[in-house]
Amino acid sequence: MKVTVCELPDHEPHFLEEWSSLKEHLGQHKPDWLLLPEMPFGKWIAAERTVSEVAKMRSVEKHERWMEEVERLNVPYVVYSKPVISNGKFFNTAFVFEKGSGHFRIHTKSFFPEDPFFWEETWYDPESPKAFDLLELGGLKIGALLCTEMWFTQYAREYGKQGIDLLFCPRATGLASVNQWTRCGQTLSVISGAYCLSANRSGKGENGFQWGGSGWISEPMTGDLLGRTTAYQKFVTRTIDINMSKKAKTEYPLNVRG
């Protein structure tokens, strides 16, 4: 089975160019799964400390318009997150698109930073009650931890106990912390006994903020990186052995009772 991760520019004209290149990559490598960055189809609105209802609506509408593009991609499964307005609340929710079947909700983000350029606790509503459930598609068990949620490692272990095969971690993180996030993803692979896939924004954002890029694929048990995107290689596709994630559930640390 093949999986693809990516880093995509925050700047819209550059994003459109790279999206075209991504489609070429998918046509060439023909992966089974693609992971996109956290809310990739618009401006990072949480950069502003003051909440704007207009900005919320524009972000939702823009992501909805891009769903047609997602559906046209040459890949059976696409994982992404997008803003959702429901019952007066504003959510950041991960979905998977299965070609021929539609879009399925995976998980809504529940943990948020509240720092300069990342005023997410101000903007977004958490899922209540918090739910980190698996979704079964294509014979695989998948789950998601959205960006900051990666640091709440107890949920990765719970996913592992439920038999997860693929752990998707869409991100929107800066250049200064790339190494910390990568090490976290490698650790999550060990804790969950699953392949950990991450994709991130790249390039310059609002007010000159530098996004970190560096999407990755890390393997169960060892946490070794099978592939990592760079500014010069924005898309990475690797073949993985799903039997490795199943074997990991019988070995340390998943075999430790708790």
Could you please describe the fold and organization of this structure?
The protein has 258 residues and is an alpha/beta fold. Helix content is 28%, strand content 29%. The chain is built from six helices and 13 strands. Strands 1, 2, 3, 4, 5, 6, 7, 8, 9, 10, 11, 12 and 13 form a 13-stranded mixed β-sheet that branches. Helix 4 runs parallel beside helix 5. It is globular, with a radius of gyration of 17 Å. The mean pLDDT is 96.
Label this structure with key terms:
13-stranded mixed β-sheet; single chain; 6 helices; alpha/beta; 258 residues
Category from helices, strands and their pairing: alpha/beta
Number of helices: 6
Number of extended strands = 13
Largest beta-sheet characterization: 13 strands, mixed
**What proportion of the residues form beta strands (DSSP E)?**
25-35%
Shape call: globular
The N- and C-terminal alpha carbons lie at a distance of 32 Å
Spatial extent as radius of gyration:
17 Å
Report the order of strands and helices. EHEHEEEHEEHEHEEEEEH
Q: What is the averaged pLDDT score? A: 96
Low-confidence stretches: none
Helical proportion, percent range:
25-40%
